[in-house]
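Entry 12.
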Amino acid sequence: MTQKRKIPIDSDKTRAQQERDKELAETGAAPEEVFQESPEAADVVAESEAERVLPQDIRLLAERCEAAEKRAEEEHENLLRAVADFDNYRRRVRAELEQARQFGIEDFIIRLLPVLDNFERAIKTAEEMNDFDALHGGVVLILRQLRDVLEKEGVRPIETEGQQFDPTKHEAVMRVETDEYPDNAIIEEFQKGYMLGDKVIKPSMVKVARHPEE
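Predicted 3D structure (tokens):
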């Protein structure tokens, strides 16, 4: 009877193989022999690994891109809406300013019309009565009335009597060499000037004294 020979088994190698198989099973990695034996099989395993890991990152990136595009569209719409609102506001302000200007002119004209009526009545009365004194008295009253209307609007005459010449308020239409007045003093006013608030709207036309040169 032939006796069977027992083949010794490397217990250390078997234990190492078992541990390796356990590790591969837990990680899901492809065995090294697959890459060594078949490149095509290795590509398939690599693709499967990429499909298992990358889709989550790709999905997150896609969601972020979509959110960024949505925010950009919302910001663009907000910008267009703001531009349209500002354009409407500018037109509304321009219309309100024009309306206020028209109302201001209308109010001033309404207060000025009685002055015009008094002028017409004074001239008519003087013609009917042929009285120059009556016409003169009426004109003086109308002039006072007109000055009151202008003063309420902030218009006041520029003082020239006893004043020194000021180029910002006065216009020298004549200079006279004389020692009777201080140098650069206003001697005579030819035409009255006016200010609106602090702004000169019409300079006074004056005669100015100048000392003779030695």
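Annotation: The mean pLDDT is 79. DSSP finds four helices and six strands in the chain.
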